[in-house]
Write a structure and sequence with these properties.
The complex is a heterodimer of chains A (274) and B (257).
Chain A: H1 2-8, E1 12-21, E2 24-34, E3 39-43, H2 50-57, E4 65-70, E5 73-74, H3 80-87, E6 90-93, H4 105-116, H5 121-134, H6 150-161, E7 168-172, H7 180-197, E8 200-205, H8 208-214, E9 217-222, E10 225-230, H9 232-236, H10 241-247, H11 264-269
Parallel strand pairs in A: 3-8, 3-9, 6-7, 7-8
Antiparallel strand pairs in A: 1-2, 1-4, 4-5, 9-10
Helix pairs in contact in A: 4-5, 4-6, 5-6
Chain B: H1 2-29, H2 32-37, H3 39-49, H4 54-76, H5 85-123, H6 126-132, H7 137-175, H8 180-190, H9 193-220, H10 226-255
The chains are: A alpha/beta (274), B mainly alpha (257).
């Protein structure tokens, strides 16, 4: 019975989360759930705290208050050892790829395997080649990270993130700065990984169309609050001004085009005497 | 009033950093046993920090020894004591110049490289990625570098002193005509293994800890921007040089009173 409950519980459950940086409120009592086996997208304008949220799920940042539960464990209260073993079951794709620049592609993907398992080198080789094959870069195994394009680096990082077959993969802005072909490749890969490995995916992104095309559920964050949530179809027909501005990429709306400032006439007439 | 406040703030931030530096060292030391077990990581760092510093250490040692030989001869010859050149060379190199100058060079050559490397790893999220892969960067990245620096420093200082003695020999005996037998035999009788050589080794060991600790901490603590890395490397060279000179005074006072 308890097992069943655990199965039904979302893999990530965030309740009443608050966080601030100095005076700036990043999260103001937000609630989110990320169900098992699904792709959940978290969208919002730059600087709204999307990456911060991923870091809290991974336990790299502690919230001011509130609860972050991953697979039934309260991340904010875990000991260092328990957090490390939880992280072994998580994969994270950083925006830059964050490959270890002094190691070639092969060793980068082998890194988590060598650190956490005592598998013989032959088996490590087989596993790494399979992971690289999944992202289409088996032939690039001997290249150094500096020889890879941005899209390739992210695919290698994805292969590294799935090296230990994680239960959840966190994607931090996976589509930023990608050409259309790499973008298409990444989209297909994320979808395939989720299906083939049965993992749960959390995508943080501001590329609305791309992220919406593969997500099961979307949260839209702005100003420390969740201003909209639902399936891609629900959000498409939402009449919330916030959601409309974001989904339709309107330059002005509830999120202002102008950074807060005094009146322009007043500002110009003031000359240099401030 | 505002000056007082600024002074207070600077003092607080200094002690805060000092505290963070010690906690950092404590966590890093926790990773040393595992580092000894993974000797490949250690040897590659000993190579990067020690072997690649050999050229600058050897060349500087040679010139410092040659200058010492020249200056020492010019002074000693007035008293007819030029045969004591060997003693002068060996004692000044083994006790002071070897450990101190090689530590200063090590801070400039290897310390700054360490800071820039770790700082860049932080800036490009490599350290954060390791943390997310459940690998502690303090154990995997910092501990091998710290240990390598501590091991390399006394060896580099020894090489500096040895090359320096030969530099002085070349000038004194080779060019200026000091008697070879007197040069070596006086040196041999005046240099004590415990008082001079061992104390020199202890000095360079302490300098190795100070320089490498400062370098890895500055890298790890850097602000993740290009300006941050530039500030951190500058701080490494300045702070570790000052630390070496300050520690040298304290150690000299304790060892040779």
């Amino acid at each position: 019975m308890q097992n069943n409950n655990q199965e039904l519980e979302p893999l990530v459950r965030i309740r009443d989360l608050c966080f601030r940086r100095g005076e700036r409120v990043i999260f103001d009592h937000i609630n989110l759930s990320m169900p098992r086996g699904k792709i959940t997208a978290i969208m919002g304008p730059s600087g709204c705290g999307k990456t911060t949220l991923l870091r809290m799920i991974g336990g790299q940042l502690k919230p001011l208050s509130g609860s972050v539960r991953v697979d039934g464990q309260e991340v904010t209260a875990l000991s260092r050892g328990a957090l490390m073993s939880l992280r072994q079951r998580m994969g994270m794709l950083f925006q830059s790829g964050a490959l270890l620049t002094d190691l070639p592609v092969f060793d980068n993907v082998a890194f988590p395997l060598r650190e956490h398992t005592r598998l013989p080198e032959r088996m490590v080789r087989d596993l790494v080649l399979m992971k690289l094959e999944a992202v289409g870069l088996r032939g690039a195994r001997d290249l150094m990270p500096s020889q890879l394009s941005g899209g390739m680096a992210r695919r290698v990082a994805l292969a590294r993130a799935i090296a230990l077959d994680p239960m959840i993969i966190l994607y931090d802005e996976p589509f930023t700065g990608q050409d259309p072909i790499s973008m298409g490749v990444l989209l297909r890969l994320i979808e395939q990984m989720n299906e083939a490995l049965g993992t749960t995916s959390v995508i943080v992104s501001h590329d609305v169309r791309e992220a919406a095309s593969i997500s099961d559920y979307i949260y839209v964050l702005s100003g420390g609050k969740i201003i909209g949530e639902g399936t891609p179809v629900q959000l498409d027909v939402s009449d919330s001004e916030w959601v409309r501005q974001f989904m339709d990429a309107r330059p002005d709306g509830p999120v202002r085009f102008h950074y807060p400032a005094r009146d322009i006439a007043e500002d110009l007439l003031a000359g240099g005497d401030e | 009033m505002s000056a007082l406040r600024a002074l207070g703030r600077a003092g607080l931030s200094f002690f805060e950093r000092l505290g963070r530096g010690h906690i950092f060292l404590l966590y890093t030391l926790g990773g040393l046993p595992a580092t000894l077990y993974r000797w490949r990581l250690l040897t590659s760092q000993v190579f990067a920090l020690g072997v690649l510093s050999l050229v600058i250490i050897a060349v500087s040692g040679l010139f410092v020894g040659m200058v010492l030989g020249l200056q020492g001869y010019n002074t000693l010859v007035d008293f007819g004591a030029e045969e004591s050149l060997g003693i002068l060379l060996a004692l000044s190199l083994v006790r002071e110049l070897g450990p101190v100058v090689s530590a200063l060079l090590f801070a400039g050559r290897a310390g700054s490289a360490l800071t820039a490397e770790i700082g860049l790893m932080k800036t490009t999220e490599q350290l954060a990625a390791m943390e997310m892969m459940a690998v502690d960067p303090l154990h995997r990245v910092v501990a091998p570098r710290l240990l390598a620096g501590i091991l390399a420093m006394p060896l580099l200082a020894a090489i500096f002193s040895a090359v320096g003695v030969y530099g002085g020999y070349f000038v004194g005996v080779g060019l200026l005509g000091v008697d070879e037998g007197a040069f070596w035999s006086q040196m041999q009788s005046a240099v004590d293994f415990h008082d001079d050589i061992l104390n020199g080794v202890i000095k360079s060991f302490v300098f190795g800890i100070a320089v490498t600790w400062i370098a890895v901490f500055e890298g790890y603590d850097t602000a993740p921007t290009s300006a941050g890395i530039s500030r951190a490397t500058t701080r490494t060279v300045v702070n570790s040089s000052l630390a070496v000179l300050g520690l040298d005074f304290v150690l000299t006072a304790l060892m040779f009173d």
